[in-house]
Each structure stands twice: as structure tokens, then as C-alpha cells.
Amino acid sequence: MIGVFGGSGFYSLMEKAEKIKVDTPYGAPSDLISVGEIAGKRVAFLPRHGERHTLPPHKIPYRANLYAMKSLGVERIIAPCAAGSLQPHVKIGDFVVSDQIVNRTFRRVDTFYDGPVVTHIGFADPYCPELRQIAIGSARRLGLPIHEKGTVVVIEGPRFSTRAESKWYSSMGWEVINMTQYPESVLARELEMCYVNIALITDYDVGVEGKVPPVSHEEVIKVFRENNEKLKALVFEIIKNIPDERHCKCGEALKGARFE
């Protein structure tokens, strides 16, 4: 089964789906999980902010969301999100298949493994290489404006960056800014699930060179809605091209990671 997390402005995926309530040791997920079929494959969909967007980024139950997906048999996660651009060449309406993460959050629980078995997961390459190539190829076939790699810096939120913070992130050469890619991505790795991010650029962050007006949530949602059908088409194309068997190392993430 394939799992999809919906971001800001992305609250539904399948017209015909069964909504399932899943309980986890970490509390309830963000919402009911919709389970249906796309391209002959079973797919589970969960809006990470809740169907009515009631959960801010720092209050999303990330562990419950990932655990719920795992309990349904999900092995691969497609995780689109709304994101800001930190570089002039990454334009509004572009898609970025992220390949690296910089974590700037500071009050989120980011592991399932609090002991007594000490677990150090490898996270040098945060995203599944197989899913990344499928996402890139799918975007190309659809003729979408795609950046094949990009570093996403994840801020705590719910506020947006100051100009000084944004200028710093931009000066480091990072391409994308977002509030939800961490700890979602690392929790997927801890559960040995493949995980890929497609960032839809909805705005320029305020530190980008040139006269950029401060970002607003209203503008983010406006751009996301304008591109929502393109994003859904991309997700459908990715799902269609995912092979039955995994050929990556994501399913072996715990191998050698524990002191036992």
C-alpha cells in the first residue's frame, strides 16, 4: 500500500474511498484516513493538518500519522507540501523534489525510539532515491516545471521567517523553506518506509534578493489551489509508476542501528 500526506490546501485525493479511524500508541492521527484505489494500487490518504486545517505545523501528531500508515501496511509515503522559495531561480508554481533537509525546529518529538534499546538511524540521505527518480520522471512526462533536487530548511512555525532569518537561509544556498518536512521524514525512515517530498512553491520568502513582499497564509493557499490539479496529477502519475517491489535500502534502515 502507498500512503499520501496532503499539505496546506490539499485535503482530498480520491473520490471513492473508505474513511478509516486508526488508533495508535501515540494518540489519534490528524484525521480519518481515506483508503481507496489509484491505478490498481491500494492508497491511503491523510491530510496532515486535518481535513479542515485545524492543526498548525508544530501541533501535527507526526508519530501518530506515521504509525497509523505503517499499521495499515504502507511501505511508501508520498509527501507533497506547500513551500516557499529561497532562491530567485526557484519560481512560484515550480515543483521541487527535495534531496536534503536542514532542521531548524526545536520543540517536536522526532523519534519513536526513546530507549531502553538505543537506536541511531542513518539519515545522510533523507529521501528515498527510488521514489525521487520516479517523481522526477513523472513530472517530466507531465511537462511540469521541476527542480530535480533542493535542500529544504524546516522552520518551527507557525510564524513565517524574519527578513534576517530568511536572508541567512538564502545565503546558505538552500532552495526551499517549509514547516512540516521534519520530523515527518525521519519518522518514516525509523519505520523503514520509503519517503519522497514534492514541494510546490507558493511564494518567495522575504529574504530572497529583490523586493519581495512578506508572505501571507492567504497567498500561500491561493497559489496552492491554483496548482492543486497539477499536483494531484503528479501524485497519480507517481503512484502509477511505483513498482510492486522496492529496490532501495529504506526497508533496511534499522539494520545495524541498534545497541542490543
Please provide a brief summary of the model.
The chain has 260 residues and is an alpha/beta fold. It is built from 5 helices and 13 strands.
How would you sum up this structure, described in words?
The mean pLDDT is 93. The protein starts with a strand and ends with a strand. It has 260 residues and is an alpha/beta fold. Helix content is 26%, strand content 25%. The strands form two sheets. Strands 1, 2, 3, 4, 5, 6, 7, 9, 10, 11 and 12 form an eleven-stranded mixed sheet that branches.
State the main characteristics.
260 residues; 5 helices; two-stranded antiparallel ribbon; globular; single chain; Rossmann fold; 11-stranded mixed beta sheet; alpha/beta; 13 strands
Strand content: 25-35%
**Which CATH first-tier class would you pick?**
Alpha Beta
Gyration radius, to the nearest Å?
17 Å
Helix content: 25-40%
Q: Structural class of the secondary elements? A: alpha/beta
Stretches with pLDDT under 50, minimum 5 residues:
none
Order of H and E elements:
EEEEHEEEEHEEHEHEHE
- For the record, the CATH architecture stands as 3-Layer(aba) Sandwich
The number of helical segments is: 5
Number of domains: 1
Mean pLDDT over all positions: 93
Number of strands: 13
Largest sheet: 11 strands, mixed
Question: Between the first and last Cα atoms, what is the distance in angstroms?
Answer: 31 Å
The global form is globular
